[in-house]
Design goal:
The chain contains 4 helices and 9 strands; from the N terminus they run ββαβαβββαββαβ. By secondary structure, the protein is an alpha/beta fold. The strands form 3 sheets. The chain has a 5-stranded parallel beta sheet with strand order 3-2-4-7-8. Strands 1-9 form a two-stranded antiparallel sheet.
Length: 140
Amino acid sequence: MKTLEVALTENGYAGKALVVDDADDVRDLMTVLMKTRFNCLVESASCIQDACQRFMETDFDLVICDFEIGEETGADLIEYLIKRRIELPFFLYTGHCEIQTRDFDHLDYPLVVIHKPHYDTLLTVISEVMTWPPRGQVFA
């Protein structure tokens, strides 16, 4: 069982999110939404290598990541996080309808797959995570 702890930072933010997408407009949109709708501090990355570098520099509370990022995939970032024992909610969005959350069950990682263009679903799921009471809520 995974747990998610959401607590306000000393500056009153709900947490820190990393948005990973190679499309500038999508990355910018998700960054603005996470800042304005969920009161998160947000950093972004345009490739998996940049995202991995961000994890070496700072801690994050959740990741929102496109599945296809150039020649790499969001699954590459998940593998990087698993190898470094970094566990946090990971929202993977994709235009490939055949990709499902259950396809990643073997990783035992707190992952949700959202299909494009269902950004309303993505926002609903993120909203549920961000409104959980602090400390001890189960994330399955």
